[in-house]
Automatic annotation (TrEMBL), chain A:
The lineage of its organism: Bacteria, Pseudomonadati, Pseudomonadota, Gammaproteobacteria, Pseudomonadales. This is Polar amino acid transport system ATP-binding protein. One of its GO terms (molecular function) is ABC-type amino acid transporter activity. It holds the Pfam family ABC_tran. SUPFAM superfamilies: P-loop containing nucleoside triphosphate hydrolases. Keywords: Amino-acid transport, ATP-binding, Cell inner membrane, Cell membrane, Membrane, Nucleotide-binding, Transport. It is found in: Cell inner membrane.
TrEMBL record, chain B:
It is found in: Cell inner membrane; Cell membrane. GO terms for molecular function: transmembrane transporter activity. It comes from Pseudomonas indica. InterPro entries: AA_ABC_transptr_permease_3TM (IPR010065), ArtM/GltK/GlnP/TcyL/YhdX-like (IPR043429), Ectoine_EhuC (IPR014342), MetI-like (IPR000515), MetI-like_sf (IPR035906). It comes from the Bacteria. The keyword Glycoprotein does not apply. Keywords: Amino-acid transport, Cell membrane, Membrane, Transmembrane, Transmembrane helix, Transport. Residues 1-186 form the ABC transmembrane type-1 domain. Pfam families: BPD_transp_1. The keyword Transmembrane applies. SUPFAM superfamilies: MetI-like. This is Polar amino acid transport system permease protein.
From TrEMBL, chain C:
The chain crosses the membrane at residues 20-44, 190-208. Belongs to the binding-protein-dependent transport system permease family. HisMQ subfamily. GO terms for cellular component: ATP-binding cassette (ABC) transporter complex. Residues 20-208 form the ABC transmembrane type-1 domain. It is a multi-pass membrane protein. The keyword Transport applies. GO terms for biological process: amino acid transport. This is Polar amino acid transport system permease protein. InterPro entries: AA_ABC_transptr_permease_3TM, ArtM/GltK/GlnP/TcyL/YhdX-like, Ectoine_EhuD, MetI-like, MetI-like_sf.
Amino acid sequence: MPQPIVRFTDVTKRYGNLTVLNNLNLDVEAGEKVAIIGPSGSGKSTLLRALMTLEDIDEGIITVDDEPLTHMPARDGRLVRANARHQRKVRGKIGMVFQSFNLFPHMSALQNVMEAPVQVLGLDRKEARERACELLDMVGLGEKHDHYPSQLSGGQQQRVAIARALAMRPKVMLFDEVTSALDPELCGEVLSVIRRLGAEHSLTMLMVTHQMGFAREFADRICFFHQGRIHEQGTPAELFGNPREDRTRCFLSAVNEAQ
Amino acid sequence: MTVQVTFWGSLLAIVSAIVAALGRLSSVPALRWLAITYIEVFRGTSLLVQLFWLYFVLPMPPFNIEMSAFAVAILGLGLHIGAYGAEVMRGAIRSVAKGQYEACQALNMSPFKRFYRIVLPQALLAAIPPGTNLLIELLKNTSLVSLITLSDLAFRARQLDQATFMTLEIFALTLLLYFLLAQVINLGMRMLERRLSRGRMQGGLS
Amino acid sequence: MNLFDWSFAWHILPDLLRASLNTLTITLLGFAIAVAAGLLLAIGRRSRHLWLSWPVAGLIEFIRSTPLLIQVYFLFYVFPNYGLNLTAMQAGILGIALHYACYTAEVYRAGLDAVPRGQWEAVTALNMAPLTAYRDIILPQALRPILPALGNYLVAMLKDTPVLSAITVVEIMQQAKNIGSESFRYLEPITMVGLFFLILSLGLAWFVRRLEGRLELAPR
């Protein structure tokens, strides 16, 4: 039985009195594509941000590829809070694409993609450049190497951001509402890049999304989030076609009405 | 002489501004307080007082540190303007969007790399307009150095004045020279800004 | 005789305080002039008549980018040749006031620019004379947001007064130097002058910040 590549065990996260993640348990198998849906404020993004170590969790433990991310074994074998060094080591297996792109504005598209491989992985510039070129070609921006973020459309920026994350060769990719900041006509180009990524690579993907159609067609599993925990999960056919819980049904019909 | 003091002074000012701004933003209380003390003391007391302190007090018994007027000028001006620059840098560093930090973490960059590859270039650009004013301030303040007997423009002017009695011409020319130097700084900084911001500020997006 | 000599410090304190009165006089008088002259300069610079706005803009730029020291030298050493004799104190106050007038002019300009266009249009529509318009409508709106900036220049001005010691104005710094050259002790007088400025400018800065806070709370 293979270990899951990402495992959340009893993870709780609070902001003051507000509990955003409530005793959450989630296993993701290697190569699995998981879409996370749910009302805003239900903790979807916090889940991804905790996995990227952008948020500290209060209780529980997150494991990535058999290694604890939030904790590390102390000398006596007990698990203690991970220090920055340990987090950096484990975090390297994860890549993330943000809602607001967060490209580096003072670097061209190519430099954006090359930066981390050169500075973090220590690749030599030639190799990093080749890899960056390939990735930019893959996201359909072969012509735009020397453009700066401000010269690109939102959809193009987001595709650069995807290439930038892929350049680090992550095992797990996180997509945090990657189309929410885009005009509707630009969503398609980003989603088709993600679709190709899923078809051609055995990447594990977790995505928070409001694009129900895309989630249904693309994901292996849908998790419906409510009040800091997974309220219901299943294959797209199960969850969209025949939701068991009232809340899920409620949410889905509200979304359908809006779209 | 004026140009030399301005040049080395600016260099020191920029370095101390960055270091002090980092200290001011540090999460270590001791560093933060050290930076605050430096900034407040150098901003709060008069530049001339600082120059005199360095020039007249330091060589005296408890310290016994004697420096040339040139060194005092650079040290005094650099640290003084640096304290003002620190506040400018602090604002500039804080103006870098939070998303940039998160992107760096997602790419697994070390804090050091994150600062000097990503945050600093963006902060420096934001700091250029107020920084230009500070550099001109520094240039103007080099005139005070004449009061600790360094022969800069202002000092030469006084000397010439006493020797020739062509007071109007001399001081008018001196003023003009300072004005021209200030315009050179202005122009240089604007060119630097254009270079650093290539590719940015054009499209409306991002 | 090694470290800070407290009894000596105590001994020279009255002298320094007496000289500090000069410092404060220069600052307050100079600031009053600067605030008034700066307003005139700002309005001149905004004038529609190019023969007025261009020279004023040039003058402001010029004075702002040349050193105060040379400017007061100019007033003190050049003017007497043309029959205008100023005492050191007069030249000092005038010089520092003019210098800072150019800075306050820019502050006013920012304040005036921030008054919404509609206000200017309303003033024109009501056919107000320029003087009335500025006095009753524009200035009251422009002044409030720029008070903190003006306050900051008051602090800056205070810290620039030692420059005037160069033309023999006996303000606090000059006094400290005199004490130093008589007693060969510089540590106490100069350190005390530093403290004097530090305390005053921290106090003023605190006051400006409070002002800022109150202005932000007040409805606009």
